[in-house]
Amino acid sequence: MANILITGANGQVGKVLTAKLQAIYGKNSVWATDLRDNPNFDGKFGILDATEESAISAMIQKHQITEIYHLAAILSAKGEANPLGTWDVNMKSLFAVFEAARKNKIQKVFFPSSIAVFGPNVNRALTPQNANLDPTTVYGISKVAGENWANYYFQRYGLDIRSLRYPGIIGYQSLPGGGTTDYAVEIYHKAILGETYDCFIAANTKLPMIFMDDAIRATIEIMQAPQENIKTRTAYNLASMSFTPSEIAGVIQKEIPAFSMKYTPDFRQDIAASWPEVIDDSPARQDWNWKPAYDLEKMTKEMLFQIEKQYNKALEVE
Ligand code: NAD
Ligand code: SER
User: Fold this and answer.
1) Ligand 1 mean position to 314 CA, how many Å?
2) Dihedral, CA of residue 207, residue 210, residue 215 and residue 218, to nearest 10
3) What's residue 96's pLDDT?
4) Are 196 and 231 part of one and the same domain?
5) Out of 26, 207, 220, 235, which could bridge 113 as a Cys pair, Cβ 3.0 to 4.6 Å?
6) For residue 144, how far is the Cα from the chain centroid?
7) Is residue 289 assigned to a domain?
8) Do 155 and 29 fall within a single domain?
9) Ligand 2 centre and the CA of 116: distance in Å?
């Protein structure tokens, strides 16, 4: 039996991952935590600053925690507003979680990395697992450092840390929290609301993306894989689909022909242009059988269906 602690559980990924872990392990075995309160949370919730090792240790001991999913972080776009503050949160929380996990003999830790670890000097058309890592954002630098520390804690202390380089994650269940790929969630909401979407990424900039359901399944699958299958101890490349803003708009227009886009690229365009277009995730496919289930068309149908349902439900409540 696992008792699970999640940091950053109120975020885009945390909300969905928490519900999935509750469904697998039971509501009494999953402790969701965040810096911000969540009064309507259905299950066990606590306010926890993930940069505080002693608070994490106290939580581990009080609830006999055996696994940690460390999601708390400041993402790429938001991070550029306060580079040193972002470094502080991302690295302090990483060390606090890894140290608390090591000292309290936690069995497994999940720490998500990102496509942001890559910089402009890779083969952007198909970025391999072992490409050069020279990111241009403080967020990317913190993820590269985090990956290397994850490997260090595994080699030095045997702490079983598993990590994925998530692409941009697209889901209907939650809203994104300050990333460069957030446009690919916002666009669906604007399409359902019948509004023009003003995209902050240029029409032809291609980025790797993944549907939330696939991202969550990958997370569960890597965490449940036998230890001997996990051969990459920094972080695995993870791929699903890649598209440009004009391609996603075209697929939405097949469902909603009146949908319109305009483009006003801002500072996030420079970040996007420094990231890969397509990711080579063959080691993940070989080592623990990763295979995505959604492509752009299938995801778009599901996103539009679910978001429309949410807005209709909100109207009924009013
Ligand atoms: P998010 O910004 O939506 O959520 C982050 C959460 O962390 C927020 O609820 C915030 O309140 C919380 N938080 C911030 N500082 C904290 C602290 N000191 N203590 C406790 N909680 C704190 O982010 P997300 O999209 O859910 O991302 C989760 C993880 O996945 C992050 O590590 C991120 O780097 C990684 N990731 C996400 C994506 C994506 O597209 N969403 C892609 C790649 C990697
Ligand atoms: N979606 C994330 C971001 O844009 C990638 O890590 O920051």
Assistant:
1) 26
2) -90
3) 98
4) no
5) 235
6) 15
7) no
8) yes
9) 7
Residue 8 CA: which ligand is closest? 1
Say how many Å lie between the CA of residue 73 and the centre of ligand 2. Answer: 11
Looking at residue 1, what is its pLDDT? Answer: 82
- Digit-coded pLDDT (tens) for 241-252: 999 999 999 999
Question: 197 with 102, same domain?
Answer: no
Angle between helices 12-25 and 212-224 (to 10 degrees): 50
CB 117 within 8 A of CB 270: no
Beta-sheet strands, E only, within the chain: 4-7, 30-34, 44-47, 67-70, 108-110, 113-114, 161-162, 164-166, 168-170, 197-199, 207-211, 236-237, 241-243, 261-263
Does residue 142 have its Cβ closer than 6 Å to ligand 2? no
| Number of separate domains in the chain | 2
Residue in this structure with the two tokens 């069995």, named with its chain if needed = 107
Same domain, 249 and 148: no
Closest CA to ligand 2's atom 1: 168
* Domain, as residue range, for 192: 170-208+242-276+296-317
Q: Could you say which DSSP state residue 266 is in?
A: -
140 pocket-lining for ligand 1 (C-beta < 6 Å): no
179 CB within 6 A, ligand 2:
yes
Q: Which ligand is nearest to the CA of 86?
A: 1
Q: Answer yes or no: do 138 and 43 share one domain.
A: yes
Distance 192 CA to ligand 2 centre (A): 23
Question: Residue 182 in 3-state DSSP?
Answer: helix
The string of pLDDT tens digits covering residues 65-90 is 999 999 999 999 999 999 999 999 99
When the pLDDT of each residue in the chain is averaged and rounded to a whole number, the result is 98
Atom of ligand 1 nearest to the CA of 176: 3
List residues bridging with 46 in a β-sheet. 33
Residues 169, 178 contacting (CB under 8 angstroms)? no
Shared-domain flag, residues 145 and 11 = yes
